[in-house]
Amino acid sequence: MQIQVKDFTKSLRGYDINEVRDFLDEVAKQVESMAYENKTLRDKIREKELSILEYRDRESMLKDTMYTAQKVTEDIKKDASRDATNIMTQAKLRADSMLKQAQQDLKAVVEETSRLKKQKLELSAQLRSTLETHLRLLDRIEHEDRGTVVLDPKRI
Question: Is 9 left (phi over 0), alpha (psi -120 to 50) or beta?
């Protein structure tokens, strides 16, 4: 605009005014065209910068998401490892308890077997003694029936 309104002082030996005016109009058109192109390019640059910011935001969100996913994965692994350890510990405790109970049961069975064997020997001895006593009595009765008395101290 300034180029178009610019006035020069007139002199006798100066340039042709129409020629200067035409030249200034041409220069003004070119400057206006360049200013429009410059504005258009700046707008494009602004759009590209906004796109870049948007992509950076997306990249940041993706990084945050990946970090969170990695953290969650690590937490899941830690929890699974801790759970596995707990399960193994509980299984070992149960196995130890079952083994201890089985050992106690075995000891009780062995003691009961031993007690029953002892009782069997006692009963066997008592039965033998009772049978021997009855046999002596039978021998005595048989000898009395025949008229003889047996005085064997072992048999009485």
Answer: beta
From residue 91, alpha-carbon distances to 82, 99, 101, 102, 124 in Å are: 14, 12, 15, 16, 48
Contact, 150 vs 143, CB < 8 A? yes
The pTM of this model reads 0.44
Give the confidence band of 59 by pLDDT, cuts at 50, 70, 90: very high
Please, which pLDDT band fits residue 12 given cuts at 50, 70 and 90? low
Q: What is the Cα–Cα distance from 74 to 76, expressed in whole angstroms?
A: 5
151 has pLDDT over 60: no
Structural contact between residues 41 and 65, judged by C-beta atoms closer than 8 angstroms: no
Task: Report the C-alpha gap between 150 and 52 in whole angstroms.
Answer: 132
| Domain with 119 in it | 2-155
Read off φ and ψ for residue 31, nearest 5 degrees: -65, -40
How many domains would you assign to the chain?
A: 1
Whether 25 and 4 have beta carbons less than 8 Å apart is answered as yes
Whole-number Å distance between alpha carbons of 151 and 88:
79
In whole angstroms, what is the distance from residue 3 CA to residue 123 CA? Answer: 141
